[in-house]
Amino acid sequence: MNKIAQQALKSLLKIRPNLSGYRQKNLALKYYIPCIKYSYSLSKINSPQFSSNASSYPTSLIICLSLLSWLGFTEEDEDKESELIMTLKRAVLCKQQEKFDKAEQMLHLALRIAQQQQNDQGVIYCYDLMANLAFDQNQLDKAEKLFKYVLQILLGKGVEQESLEVIHISLKLARICQLKADLDKAEIGYKWCLEQIGKQKDDKVAAKVLYGVISDWYAQFLLDKGDLKNALIFLNEAHKACVQADGEHSSQVVLLLNDMGITSFRAEDMVNAEKFLTEAIEIGKNLEDKSHLGVVHANLGLVLLQKGILAEAQKFCKEAWQLGKRHENIESMEQANYCLDQIKLNMGK
């Protein structure tokens, strides 16, 4: 696997956390629910000034997928810093700075360059980035139309339905259906992706990683439906894929263990809830990025509160607040304050 392919796989493990609470028995624990935020390996290779903010976030599992390595770009292309690649880099930088209108202008310019060069791979990549940009702005209809167009081009060029390119775009379309509340179509899409990737998940690293993506997204879909039993099964599959791709001690593993702990809590399995969250904290202590670790501490505090272990619950909630303060993480501080408020209420009973 060349350097760009390796970078593309690494980009699969990037997520910007989108926290949402869940209330049960007067407690709210915070998930790291994947929202589809994309970072592009194109903007990172040999270009520190274009490094994505996403790389500084802790990660759940694979929420972004670049077509770069699969669409014919090579390390030599990067070294040449061609007009097309430089324009794409500028577009990505604008997107990272949330200058969305400027990013779209740059992508249209890149598309014209690719068309003039008769660079089919470049054309497809431009449309893929446009689709991702639309999605990031919650322009779901536009994103859906663009992703379908990319899919149409790929299939028209003879790309097989079971190819990773087709599967990953189909996964994005399933996610869009979910967000548009078309749950039946979303479920059909997720299951099709699982069926296709299941035939090849052990064949190569990229397929194994994409299997983790699909498992994670489908687990979140099942959580939205309240299917906790099956959600845990697919979270576990995502966890295994994450460990295989990135090792046992990573931010990705921490956030998956967090989700597994909260899902166990929702299923009233306090033993596993405590186990998963404790494991997440132990791993997180040794990571460089601890900015979101406070949320996991607060979640464990709420689980311990539910078990009636007030002193330990208070300890973890205080640690959560301190971590949030130290790393200027609002979610951690809010969750810690909520945890401490719940402890006070219970002490007053």
Structure description:
The protein is mainly alpha-helical. The protein has a domain at 3-72 and 228-347: Tetratricopeptide repeat domain (Serine Threonine Protein Phosphatase 5, Tetratricopeptide repeat). The protein is 66% helix and 4% strand. The protein is built from 15 helices and two strands. It has a two-stranded antiparallel ribbon with strand order 1-2. Helix 4 runs antiparallel to helix 5 (120-136). Mean pLDDT is 80; it is low at 1-26 and 33-71. Its main location: mitochondrion. Pfam families: TPR_12. It is found in: Mitochondrion.
Number of helices: 15
Class inferred from helices and paired strands: mainly alpha
Helix content: 55-70%
Q: Calculate the terminal CA-CA distance, rounded to whole Å.
A: 61 Å
Largest sheet: 2 strands, antiparallel
From the alpha carbons, calculate the radius of gyration and give it in angstroms: 21 Å
Keywords:
15 helices; mainly alpha; 349 residues; Serine Threonine Protein Phosphatase 5, Tetratricopeptide repeat
Strands, helices and their partners?
Elements: H1 3-11, E1 18-24, E2 27-33, H2 75-80, H3 83-96, H4 100-116, H5 120-136, H6 140-156, H7 164-179, H8 183-198, H9 205-225, H10 228-246, H11 251-266, H12 270-284, H13 293-306, H14 310-326, H15 330-347
Antiparallel strand pairs: 1-2
Helix pairs in contact: 3-4, 4-5, 5-6, 6-7, 7-8, 7-9, 8-9, 9-10, 10-11, 11-12, 11-13, 12-13, 13-14, 13-15, 14-15
Brief characterization of the structure:
The chain has helices at 3-11, 75-80, 83-96, 100-116, 120-136, 140-156, 164-179, 183-198, 205-225, 228-246, 251-266, 270-284, 293-306, 310-326, 330-347, and strands spanning 18-24, 27-33. By secondary structure, it is mainly alpha-helical.
